[in-house]
Amino acid sequence: MIILEDIYYKYEPEGIEALRGVSLQIREGEHLALIGPNGCGKTTLIRHLNSLLLPASGKITVDGSDTKDTRQQAQIRSRVGMVFQNPDNQIVGMTVEEDVAFGPENLRLPTAEIKKRVAESLDRVGISELACRNIENLSGGEKRLVAIAGVLAMRPRYIALDEPTAFLDPAAAGRVLNIIDKLHSEGVGIIHVTHNMEEAALTQRIVVLNEGRVYLDGTVREIFGKAVMLQKTGMRLPQITELLIKMKEAGFPVRTDIVSLQEALQQIISLTEPVKD
Amino acid sequence: MYHTGSFIKGQSLIYNLDPRLKLAVTVFLSIFILWVKPPVAFFTGIAIFGAALISRVSLRTIGQAMKPLLYFIVLIFLVHVLFDEGGVWFKTPFFAISLPLTGLKQGFFVVWRFLCLIVAAVLLTMTTAPSQMIAAIKYFLKPLKLLRAPVDDIAVMIMLALRLMPIMLAQKEKIEIAQKARGYHLYSSGFIKRIKAFLFLTSNVLLSVFRRADELAMAMDARNYQRGDRSSFIELKLTSADYLVIIVLVILFAAITFLN
Question: How far apart are alpha carbons A195 and B89 in whole angstroms?
Fold first, then answer.
């Protein structure tokens, strides 16, 4: 479990306070969406999870290890993988397999074990056929998958993904989301930073950050049920939820804590059914 | 996009040779060809061009790689011809022109040696993947570890430089396009304007590269990068083909040295 206790963080020398007393618990195998408006501290928060940033005050433990303990940092970084927003800024190798091997090489694993992990990670994200391809010749979606494979080669228990579908077309974004879902079903804890409420609706739990604080925390249904509070942060609900809110305001007896298109459809169809005596 | 001297995927005896062997032979050949007498240098050059044919890298591609140096090569040749001090001239049957024989000879052999060096280097980089090359460099630098030289860090630095280069070029193109989109043409205005535009472009490219490098360093940290020893994905192993090439080369060089 990852435990954050009253975390404060300030960017120097600008003095911008990015996190102001964040407390949170992330369970192993959990699929969590971290949402919030620009500049609310989402990226800063996830960079704390694997010790890339250290809190000015407060404490973060990853499976019992304190992120401030320099002796534990290597272990923490193996446990919490980080996929950055721009894969071009994360990929180090010249070819796909070389990049995926970068993490295991840092762990000083023997060559045979590195090769095994590279093959396994590429297979998990479904890009084994790209192994020898030059990074420069890949599409944005493929680069994103390479970045995920590179993290998987470290065999992490948790993966924090910073807007993994940003700048991708719907097909590539769908492929990335399927991989994330698959990893979650394999037991990897997912911390998914996103602006997209449809993506957030696919998770188990949503944490809304606003001005460096945890503003809302709950299941997807609970958060979508607090539409007014959510809109105050500038976040937009999924269009289908907004439609149901408008219908409710117009006097239709519908629920607004809807998380899927199927549920919304059922609600609307139920309105057309004749009332039984 | 093809860049001069960059690796081109392929399959041949030269491609499959151990990168350490290729690197060592190229360095050795570069010294050797400058050291031996002209006739021996000529035949060594023939052997290098023979290796280029065996490598199955098209001669056109090798020619393309040499194109940027063409003016330099012509200049070297002309300098030897025009400033000949040998004093032996011969009359050409055409146009009644006399040419300095020793200058021509000297110019030819200097250019020949120069071409051989380029072909050997181009052949090495075209048939050896950058990662293989880095592994070979790391292997040869290993003894420096005894002197506490940061060999693994140097290898990572080379890898990062190779990784950042295409990013820098792409960034430069992006900024150029952005400038053009706003009606600014870098290469068509006056000299001072061009200098200003160049400085603007350079500072922007550098700024963006530093930003990227910063992010990349953080991403490397996230994947547990620490200075010092690292293991390697690339396994360097000499095969029977490598041993055979070593034997052939040793015999050839011994024979050439004897003749020289």
Answer: 81
Domain boundaries, position A274: 238-277
Together in a domain, A267 and A167: no
Residue A10 belongs to domain with CATH number? 3.40.50.300
- Which chain B residue has its CA at the smallest distance from A80's CA? B222
pLDDT at position A276 is 58
User: Closest Cα to residue A215, out of A2, A82, A45?
Assistant: A45
Measured in whole angstroms, how far is the alpha carbon of residue B125 from the centre of its chain? 6
Residue A6 to residue B121: CA distance in whole angstroms: 59
Q: Which of B166, B222, B231 sits opposite A109 (nearest CB)?
A: B231
Question: Of A101, A140, A141, A145, which Cα lies nearest the Cα of A119?
Answer: A101
Q: Do A114 and B231 touch (CB under 8 A)?
A: yes
Q: Please measure the distance between the N-terminal and C-terminal CA atoms of chain A and give it in whole angstroms.
A: 52
* Partner-chain contact B230 A105, CB within 8 Å: yes
Which residue stretches of chain A have pLDDT < 70?
274-277
Asked if B129 lies within 8 A of A94 by C-beta distance, the reply is yes
Interval B199-224: pLDDT, tens: 888 888 888 888 888 888 999 999 98
Q: How does strand A213-219 pair with strand A205-210?
A: antiparallel
* pTM listed for this prediction: 0.80
d(CA A133, CA A141): 14
Collapsing DSSP to helix, strand or coil, A59 comes out as strand
Of B162, B212, B226, Cβ closest to residue A94: B162
Assembly ipTM:
0.85
Q: Which residues of chain B have pLDDT under 50?
A: 1-2
Inter-chain contact A91–B226, Cβ cutoff 8 Å?
Answer: no
User: Which candidate from B215, B233, B235 shows the least CB-CB separation from A84?
Assistant: B215
Q: Does residue A109 sit in the same domain as residue A178?
A: yes
